[in-house]
Structure formats: C-alpha cells, structure tokens
Write a structure and sequence with these properties.
Elements (H helix, E strand, L loop, with lengths): L2 H10 L8 E2 L2 E2 L1 E2 L10 H14 L9 H21 L7 E4 L2 H12 L8 E5 L8 H10 L2 E5 L9 H7 L4 E7 L11 H9 L4 E5 L11 H4 L3 E5 L10 E5 L1 H6 L10 E4 L4 E3 L13 H15 L3 H20 L4 E3 L9 E6 L4 H9 L3 E2 L1 E3 L4 H6 L5 E5 L6 H18 L1
Parallel strand pairs: 3-15, 5-6, 5-7, 7-8, 8-9
Antiparallel strand pairs: 1-2, 4-10, 9-10, 11-12, 13-14, 14-17, 16-17
Helix pairs in contact: 2-10, 3-10, 11-14
Length: 408
C-alpha cells in the first residue's frame, strides 16, 4: 500500500458510516456539498457531553454547568483561531449559514434606506437571495445581481459597473454550492470597500476545502455551517468585525442576550451574547470543537491536494464521455463538479447511480436562478470530501458509463 493510500485508509477508519453497502454495492458517498459525514471523535464528544456534563451554559454555579460552559466557550476560541478572527467576541453561534444570513439581513435593515443597493451574484444559494428579496418588499432596497461571464465565472467588469455610492452591502458566496467554482472574494471585497459597502461572504462550501483567513480577506461578515465541516447539523457560525457588530441591534430577544430587564427598560448583553438569545445547541457546538480538533490532526495542505486530485481526475474523465455536458470545465474549483446528460433528467441519473451504491445530488441545488443562467432544469452534482478515494471516483465513472450504455 502506498503512503497516500495508507493515509486515506487511516483517515476513513474514523468514519464507520462509509463501511456499508447500498443496494448490494459498497457505498460511495459523493454528496458532501449537502452534508459531510461525522468522525467518531465528534460522536464521542457529543455522547460525553450528554452522559457527563449535560447542563445549560452561562447560567449556574454548579459543576456540570461550569464544565459545559468551559467546553462550549473553548470551541468559540477554536473557531476564532480556525478562521483567524481577531477576537472570540466576533464569533456568533447560529443554526447554520441560512440563519446567519437572515440574522444579518434583519439587523442590517436598520441601516438601509429606500433606494439603497444590495449586490449578490448569479451563483447564490436561495439562502443568499430570498432574505434580500424580502428587504426589497419591506424596505424598498434595490437588489442587483452580478452576472456570469462566458467562462462560467462572475463577471467582475459588470460587478464594478454595479458599484456606486448607493451600494451598501455585497453578499457573495465563496464557493458555488452548485458548481464548485471558487470566486475571487478578496478582490470583490476590496472593490466593495472602495465605495464604503460592507461585505458578507457565504462560506458554507469553503470552510471544508480552503484555508479561510477573515482578516486577510478583510470581509465584514463571514457565515458557515458546521455540518459541512464534519460536525453536527443545527450549528453555524457568524463572524463579524467587532466594531460593526457592536453597532448593530440584536435580532431576537430573550435569555442570554440581556444584562438586565425591567418592565421599563432592557439593557443588552455584550458581544457575542447580544446575538445569542435562548439556550444554544450546546452539544452541537461541542461536536464542532471535536471536528476542528480532528481536522487539525492532519496536514491541511495534503488534504487539499488529495481533494484536488480527485476533482481533476473526475473532471477529465467526465469530459471524455460524449453524452456529458460539463459545467465550468477548467475553471478553478473545489469540492464539486456539475454536469448533465443529453436527453436525460438529472434525477433519473442520480437514481440509477444510487442503484449502484453511488450517492450524488441532483436538481437545482437551491440555486434556481443559476440553473436558468445555465439554461437547464438541474444538474447532477458530484462533491468530494477528504475521506473520498481515487477508487471511489473511478467507481463513479464506471457506474455512469454502465448506466449510459443501458440507456442507449
């Protein structure tokens, strides 16, 4: 066994869910852009919390609460370090990327006036479209969209033409969930700041594949979900620059986000608690901490190189199949590839792949406007994670060729 094969074999041993059969075939899980599998360390951390430390955080003086709070807040510091934020006060817990964007849309609305402009892109997930459309109706903002260029990238010349003194917010995905295309967010941020616009980056697809440094990017806000980073569902992170967060009103009212309450007046808590009303997903946050510890146990550059090798192999193999229409071929990507089969529905292709134990995603990928831009109803999306292997990529290609022969 080669060093590389041994490396991936050892890594996969932490994900027992991968060692199963589906329809009498060994499972090949290639739907990682939707959610990643969880290593045993994450499951064990959650179990340990519930079996030993289960108590609410920040609100009691007894030992269980103290232990839970210590573990919970340690993860906030770990996330701060993971994305290189300046302070743990800049790390806000949410339910996921969707809630993070909705939180920002709601609290930033207080700074927007009728006619103010928000810019998004043609690649956005519905979670980064619908909240802004709501503000179009409720606050009279103007929503502008960066189009795609001929090579399936964002048209930066068109973006620059959209920017003006009315632009108050730019909200852009770091990596397209549907196409895997990596957007030049650092340049997008720099251009937005030239007109004093704030920038939100949707990092849901990026955190598991790229090294994210929010200070280097100079983004104002960055949001992502834990479940796409080998951690539990129901947990997310909203990063915001401290000075900006301190100026914003809270989104929800209740326990935790207050310093004092009377029937005459409420005084809000300091960061990060001002935005964390109610009991949080304590076990989920602790699971995220275990996921980050797990990832730190491996050479990040080696993991990225491994994923890129899978991506390059698969894209090259797909491009050699005559029936395949491959989107954004040759464009810088990470994590995912999208394609269609001439004359066949994406859903049928995904179902026939599943019959051979291959799990992929089909449909619009919560990006219907992007599908319209691509002139299709939906695509088949293959998305990789660190535990996938070259053998699995080869099995996917073989399974696809087999079903295409069957459909002839």
């Amino acid at each position: 066994m080669s060093n590389s094969s041994f490396f991936i074999s050892e890594l996969r041993s932490h994900f027992p869910i991968l060692n199963q059969t589906v329809n009498d075939f060994p499972l090949v899980y290639l739907d990682n852009a939707a959610t990643t599998q969880k290593p045993l360390a994450v499951v064990d951390a959650i179990s340990h919390y519930y079996l030993n430390d289960n108590a609410n955080v920040h609100r009691a003086s007894h030992q269980l609460s103290n232990r839970a709070t210590t573990s919970f807040e340690a993860v906030r510091t770990a996330v701060q370090q993971f994305i290189n934020a300046k302070s743990s006060k800049e790390i806000i817990w949410t339910k996921g990327t969707t809630e993070g964007i909705n939180l920002l849309a709601n609290v930033l609305a207080s700074q927007l006036q009728r006619g103010d402009q928000v810019i998004i892109s043609a690649m956005e997930h519905h979670a980064n479209i619908v909240p802004w459309q709501m503000l179009v109706k409720s606050h009279g903002i103007v929503l502008k969209v960066i189009p795609l260029s001929a090579d399936c990238c964002l048209d930066l010349e068109a973006y620059q033409a959209l920017l003006n003194e009315k632009t108050k917010l730019v909200s852009i995905t770091h990596i397209s969930n549907a196409l895997g295309v990596i957007n030049p967010v650092k340049e997008i941020i720099k251009l937005a700041h030239q007109v004093d616009a704030q920038v939100i980056i949707d990092g849901a697809q990026a955190v598991a594949h790229l090294t994210v440094d929010v200070q280097d990017l100079d983004c104002d806000y960055y949001v992502f979900s834990a479940h796409k980073l080998f951690a539990p569902t129901g947990v997310g992170v909203l990063y915001g620059k401290q000075d900006l967060l301190e100026k914003l009103p809270p989104w929800q009212g209740g326990g935790e986000m207050i310093k004092s309450v009377s029937f005459k007046e409420t005084t809000y808590n300091e960061l990060p608690f001002k935005f964390e009303a109610g009991t949080p997903n304590i076990a989920g946050v602790i699971g995220l901490g275990a996921a980050l510890d797990f990832i730190k146990g491996y050479d990040h550059e080696r993991l990225k190189a491994h994923e890129q090798s899978l991506l390059h192999f698969t894209e090259k193999a797909l491009s050699a199949i005559p029936e395949v229409t491959l989107f954004c071929a040759g464009v810088k990507k990470s994590g995912a590839i999208s394609f269609t089969i001439k004359g066949e529905s994406a859903a049928d292709i995904a179902m026939l792949l599943d019959a051979q134990g291959i799990a992929v995603r089909s449909g619009s990928h919560c990006a219907m406007p992007l599908m319209s831009e691509l002139n299709c109803n939906g695509t088949v999306r293959v998305s990789f994670a660190i535990y996938n292997t070259l053998e699995e990529a080869q099995r996917f290609i073989e399974a696809l060729k087999k079903l295409l022969q069957m459909l002839q």
